[in-house]
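Researcher: Final request for today, and then I'll write up notes for the group meeting. The sequence and the SMILES for adenosine-5'-triphosphate follow.
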Amino acid sequence: MTPRDAAQEPLLRLIDVGKTYHTGEVPVPVLHDINLDIMPGELLVVVGPSGSGKSTLLNLIAGIDTPSTGEVWFQGANISRFDERALTSYRRLNIGFVFQFYNLVPTLTARENVIVSTEISDDPMDVDEALRLAGLSDRADHFPSQLSGGEQQRVAIARAIAKNPQLLLCDEPTGALDLETGRKVLGVLSHLNRDLGKTVIIITHNSAIAQLAERVVRLASGTAISTTTDHERVRPEEITW
Ligand SMILES: Nc1ncnc2c1ncn2[C@@H]1O[C@H](COP(=O)(O)OP(=O)(O)OP(=O)(O)O)[C@@H](O)[C@H]1O
Ligand SMILES: [Mg+2]
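Model: Predicted protein-adenosine-5'-triphosphate complex:
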């Protein structure tokens, strides 16, 4: 294989992926027939209405949940076949996850929440740099209960980027933010993508954010339609909502 071929291998490949939850008495089909290649260094935005399966899709990619049908491949390995131990290692070594509802540890300060994630990383970013990028330098010693919703969201972002993973999965990363702070956060994600070569997947119900990406995936009726945008990527500071 030539280096050029290697460069064109997808980082992630979803093949006929489906997910049905069997939590209650009635099965809940959420996703079906998802076929998607995500290239290294890509910034992909996934949009879709509430309940369309966006968080479910991200959880499958993150190895937090497993598909009911189909396969998820990462760098040539079928992670759908991984056991718990292999999945833990996959998540630890490769994934930074910004949770929709932050999932901060309430008894740790902002800085300590970020430190925890650097401790499980092979190649962490400087903790203060991650806090600075998220605009939190002056709130680092506050506990989550002492932070606003938007500040907590930015701690979740600092925690994910401090791990310095090659794949950043962001579930509504600007959901609790005003326009100006949202632009800053998108600026950080865009910087990590453009300047540091990270692969970034952003999930949102805000279609304005789709302008950031060269490719947008729309989730509707349980399946995904991928479209390449016909305009230049818009800079985060130019986005408005
Ligand atoms: N563990 C679960 N058990 C049963 N049903 C679930 C489970 N998790 C999600 N669902 C259902 O799957 C559907 C998709 O949920 P998901 O959280 O992926 O949507 P979403 O697109 O992220 O929505 P939102 O924009 O509101 O966050 C919903 O109808 C939800 O009720
Ligand atoms: Mg969601």
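Model: The chain has one domain: 3-231. The first helix runs from residue 3 to 7.
Researcher: Thanks, that's everything.
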